[in-house]
Design brief:
The complex is a heterodimer of chains A (608) and B (183).
Chain A (H helix, E strand, L loop, with lengths): L3 E4 L2 E4 L6 H7 L23 E4 L4 E3 L10 E3 L3 H16 L15 H8 L16 E2 L5 E4 L8 H9 L6 E3 L6 E3 L16 H5 L5 E3 L3 H9 L3 E7 L20 H11 L3 E4 L1 H19 L7 E2 L4 H10 L13 H12 L6 E8 L3 H7 L4 E2 L2 E2 L3 E4 H11 L20 H4 L6 H10 L5 H7 L10 E8 L2 E9 L1 H12 L7 E5 L16 H17 L9 H8 L6 H5 L6 H7 L1 H15 L6 H6 L14
Parallel strand pairs in A: 1-5, 11-12, 11-14, 13-20, 14-17, 19-20
Antiparallel strand pairs in A: 1-2, 3-4, 3-5, 6-7, 7-10, 8-9, 15-16, 18-19
Helix pairs in contact in A: 8-10, 8-14
Chain B lengths: L5 H10 L7 H12 L6 H9 L3 H10 L11 E6 L2 H5 L3 H11 L13 E6 L11 E3 L2 E3 L4 H29 L12
Parallel strand pairs in B: 1-2
Antiparallel strand pairs in B: 1-3, 3-4
Helix pairs in contact in B: 1-2, 1-3, 3-4, 6-7
Classes of the chains: A alpha/beta (608), B alpha+beta (183).
């Protein structure tokens, strides 16, 4: 029989719970907390989870292991009084501009203030003016709303292995700060936004591009196109009256059309291009072991992380642009002759995409290829603002000529998805049986580090799939030390992949799993499972991509674009190439020699 | 400002095997060398010890003992523990600040000669009110005695500086550009 604890007079079995808080929540009591996040280390600072033991002593339930035989109370007059007082003290030191706060209605402090019926605050407010760090392209920090729970510090350090921010100073002067208080944009921050996902208040919120998007939608001289990333379709869930993880792609398309977007596309098509280019690149690398492992390049936070921490590995990162940037290049190139100004908007699960869109490599004449990046949360906001009753819409299909996507492109949104899509592309047998087998090799699941080996042309291919940058650091260090050898490494910055991106509505593990199931279901339902089988691909390579594969689909990180402009020879070549592109004549001979023309890869004649 | 010799920093960190738990000791030893923690050492500590720069900064700003600003050659610590406080240590502090044109926020003189700070207790309550000058205790202080003390220190410093300068100019007596006084 399992040991028992008595909680509010009810006996509860202790079954591996790490602390009393977990046990109390298992018993169906929603104990309030600010600084407890189950994936992070225990901080024990907020004291909201205090419970009373049989001797009248107070214990923080988050920091105490369950004790067999112990009797605790969670809801006494004294505890209610203390919790209210803690809330009052926090609120006295909190900028309470709730109605105009980006986190209004999503705020744990607000929730608990309501729950504990805080109707007056006896202390003078000492935090009236915002203290803003607006430097990051991804998040906005307002110190006047920080309650010093430290969740952001721990997620940055423990989950992402970065530590861009920490507590600084002490006592009443304590703040969350970068080293020497430099602006976030100048810190090692990679823009993953996980800090904003765990922040219980509006102290760290995702940067908002809603107004910029509306003004382009409203402008009659602007033609707007929009792409929707794979992970977005399964994340609108409960906030718009759907079940968690239900794919609502058709409804999103309908909503975006109603909102006034001219063209609506699915990023998954560009994911197919990524798969084709990346598997080709992988085969080239397999020829020379010095180039291995090949790292995936879809995740912009990972790119930044690699640049910051392992610059020497950047030559092993795939030269493929991310699907978002590939799609933007293709769309901007095809609409080069359009009479109206073309504005391209991307709806992403991701905050780091906002930074990616602003990178020099993806900007031409100081105009970014992706004009605005909106997160899923911003999309929800815009749908609500439009007054559209989302779950009553009739689903619609995306616009041609980019209307067909494959299951491979859709599963990009979950950790292991890129790998699975590449494995499908490498296999010449695309039968249902093989596709099913390829789902079982070890790339699926929410674990942070997955390693497996698969036979390809009688050669073992060792694959690593990581999500969470601290896991990436672990894996890379084991590669650098020679302890482990890989041929292909997929890295996604957010634990679980894009379904858990910081641009998505905040989700716990169960919701993340529901979202990934939603993507796998979409894959199952799709008629075409392998990127190379997408009937649009041929047309793209023969059309807009002809002679421009390298220019439109690949990138050299590290200011290559700027270098081209400084070197006169190459800048001539570049402008030359651009001229041809604008006239719709394809690239010149020079560039075709340089960037060997790529057709969709012919299937490899040896089953995996 | 002293040039930051990072090899010195490396030596200190290596002396503790670059262990993260030794970060406080490492910071103390670096501060002993420079009398403060130069900003340049933080990335180095971070890289060698394996803690983020923000974490090292967090430790350095948590403890009152660490200074991120260059400190003076003479450090005066005015005790403001209970015993000294009740025997009127604060007027001593105010007088020192007034004489040296310092405030609670600005603790070091422009010429980097004096730093004046308070400490919670020096453990010499029988001597209250007490202050230390570069580690040496001065018992039963009054504001006037404190003012005399800094006057004396300044005179000694000037004399030493002049002596050093004349020695310097004697060595280079052929160099007309050498100015003996006021270096």
């Amino acid at each position: 029989m399992l040991p028992m604890m008595t909680i509010d007079g009810i006996p509860v079995e202790i079954n591996g719970e790490r602390n009393m808080l977990e046990l109390i929540r298992k018993a169906g009591i929603e104990l309030p907390t600010f600084c407890y996040v189950s994936d992070l280390s225990i901080h024990g600072a907020c004291r909201m989870c205090l419970v009373e033991n049989e001797r009248g002593g107070l214990e923080a339930a988050c920091s105490e292991p369950p004790r067999p035989g112990a009797k605790i109370l969670t809801n006494t007059r004294r505890l209610r009084k203390y919790r209210k007082n803690i809330l009052e003290l926090i609120l006295a030191n909190h900028n309470r501009d709730c109605t105009v706060c980006a986190n209004n209605n999503k705020c744990r402090l607000q929730d608990l203030a309501i729950r504990f019926n805080i109707d007056k605050i006896r202390y003078k407010n000492t935090s009236l003016m915002p203290i803003i760090d607006d430097s990051s392209a991804c998040v906005t920090v307002d110190r006047s709303k920080c309650i010093l729970c430290g969740d952001c510090v721990r997620v940055c350090e423990e989950v992402q292995g970065i530590g861009a921010i920490d507590f600084a100073e002490r006592g009443s002067r304590m703040v969350i700060s970068t080293a020497f208080g430099v602006p976030l944009a100048k810190s090692p921050c990679v823009g993953c936004g996980q800090c904003s996902a765990v922040c219980p208040t509006g102290a760290i919120v995702v940067k908002n591009s809603i107004e910029a998007a509306w003004s382009d939608i409203d402008d009659p001289n602007v033609e707007t196109s929009v792409q929707i990333a794979p992970a977005v379709r399964v994340a609108l869930g409960t906030q718009l009256g759907l079940n968690n993880g239900t794919s609502s792609m058709g409804l999103i398309v309908a909503a975006l059309r109603r909102m006034g977007f001219d063209k609506v596309y699915d990023t998954s098509l560009a994911a197919d291009l990524t798969v084709i280019e990346e598997s080709q690149e992988f085969l080239e690398h397999v020829g020379s072991d010095s180039k291995l492992p090949l790292f995936t390049s879809c995740c912009p936070a990972w790119i930044k992380f690699c640049e910051n921490n392992y610059p020497e590995l950047m030559n092993k990162v795939s030269t493929c642009k991310s699907p978002m940037q590939m799609f933007a290049s293709v769309i901007k190139a095809s609409s080069a002759n359009s009479k109206k100004r073309h504005v391209h908007i991307a709806i992403m699960p991701c905050t780091a995409k906002k930074l990616e869109a602003k990178r020099g490599e993806f900007t031409v004449d100081s105009v970014p290829m992706v004009d605005h990046v909106l997160t899923s949360q911003e999309l929800i906001q815009m749908i609500k603002e439009s007054g559209i009753i989302f779950d009553q819409l009739e689903p619609e299909a995306v616009d041609s000529p980019y209307g067909v996507v494959t299951g491979a492109g859709v599963i990009f949104g979950v950790t292991g998805g890129v790998t699975e899509a590449v494995l499908r592309a490498l296999s010449d047998d695309h039968s249902g049986m093989v596709i099913k087998q390829l789902a079982q090799v070890g790339e699926r699941g929410m674990e942070g580090i997955k390693e497996f080996e698969i036979k390809y042309k009688n050669r073992p291919v060792r694959v690593g799939v990581v999500s969470g940058l601290a896991n990436a650091r672990k894996l890379i260090n084991s590669v650098l030390s020679g302890e482990k050898v890989f041929d292909l490494i997929e890295v996604m910055a957010c634990p679980g992949g894009c379904v858990a991106g910081a641009g998505q509505p905040v989700a716990d593990l169960n919701v993340k799993i529901a979202r990934s199931k939603g993507l796998y279901t979409e894959d199952k339902l799709s008629a075409i499972k392998t990127s190379g089988d997408n009937p649009l691909i041929d047309g793209l390579y023969q059309g807009v991509l002809k002679g421009r594969v390298h220019e439109l689909l690949h990138v050299s990180y590290g200011g290559a674009h700027q270098r081209l402009h400084h070197s006169s020879d190459q800048s001539l070549e570049l402008s030359h190439e651009n001229d041809h592109g604008a006239n719709g004549q394809g690239g010149n001979g020079q560039s075709e020699n340089d960037h060997a023309e790529r057709n969709p890869p012919t299937p490899i004649h040896d089953a995996i | 400002m002293p040039q930051v010799d990072l090899s010195l920093v490396d030596g200190i960190i290596d002396g503790h095997l670059g262990h993260p738990s030794a970060v406080i000791t490492i910071l103390q030893e670096i501060q002993e060398q420079y009398r403060y923690l130069p900003r340049e050492v933080f990335p180095r500590i971070s890289a060698k010890v394996g803690l983020s720069e923000a974490k090292v900064y967090s430790v350095a700003t948590f403890y009152e003992n660490f200074s991120l600003e260059p400190k003076g050659r003479v450090i005066i610590k005015v005790c403001d523990g209970t015993a000294c406080h009740v025997r009127r240590s604060l007027p001593i502090l105010s007088r020192l600040q007034k004489e040296l044109n310092l405030t609670d926020g600005k603790v070091t003189t422009e010429d980097l000669l004096f730093t004046v700070e308070t400490v919670a207790c020096l453990g010499a309550c029988g001597l209250a009110p007490v202050l230390t000058v570069s580690g040496q205790a001065h018992p039963a202080m009054t504001p006037d005695k404190a003012a005399d003390l800094i006057k004396a220190i300044r005179e000694t410093e000037l004399k030493t500086a002049a002596a050093l300068a004349s020695e310097h100019s004697a060595l280079r007596s052929n160099d007309p550009s050498t100015n003996a006084v006021g270096n």
